[in-house]
Amino acid sequence: MPDIDDRDDETQLVRRARRGQEAAFAEIYRRHARAIHSLALRLTGNHATAEDITQECFLKMLQFLGGLRPGTPLRPWLKRVAANAAIDRLRRDKRLVALDDDEAQPANGPEPALHAESIGLLRRLTPVERTVIWLHAMEGWSHPELGRRFGRSESWSKSIVSRGLSRLRLELDEPLDEPHSHDDP
């Protein structure tokens, strides 16, 4: 079996993985797992859940590999599967654990100080706000799409984004030396 290297294009890797070549699947996983895990972690705020979602995505990819159109990029498809899995868990659990800063640093992401600041901002959002805002602003999901996926309306999605961002703006304007409370008017 030939070695897989970075020069192999994804179409060839998918073709080889369809034929059952484990090395091709391993290379696909190597190329995409970190990005999928990073997205799942941002959406769920929980390292173990992000690991589970990452594994689910690649298991689904194995199931649907034969049905993927040739030349279809895998990463957008995998990210969609991960986002849907995160939404399903959010809807099922109605709660998510806070992000672990040490494990949330994305590959090729911002400088550590900027990353820590962005994680701090994400922690200020509720799990639903974090997921909807991230999917809308960073992954390009539309409000109608988000509403449908959450079983809600387009206006619900717009409202979640607006309220979450407004609250963040207000919190960012608060002096850092005063204790922070969500109960203050």
UniProtKB/TrEMBL annotation:
Keyword tags? DNA-binding, Sigma factor, Transcription, Transcription regulation
Q: Entry's InterPro entries?
A: RNA_pol_sigma-70-like, RNA_pol_sigma-70_dom, RNA_pol_sigma70_r2, RNA_pol_sigma70_r4_t2, RNA_pol_sigma_r2, RNA_pol_sigma_r3/r4-like, WH-like_DNA-bd_sf
What the entry lists under Pfam families is as follows: Sigma70_r2, Sigma70_r4_2
Q: Which family does it belong to?
A: Belongs to the sigma-70 factor family. ECF subfamily.
Alphabetical list of NCBIfam families matching this protein: sigma70-ECF
Q: PANTHER family of this UniProt entry?
A: RNA POLYMERASE ECF-TYPE SIGMA FACTO (PTHR43133), RNA POLYMERASE SIGMA FACTOR HI_1459-RELATED (PTHR43133:SF8)
> What is the name of the protein in this document?
RNA polymerase sigma factor
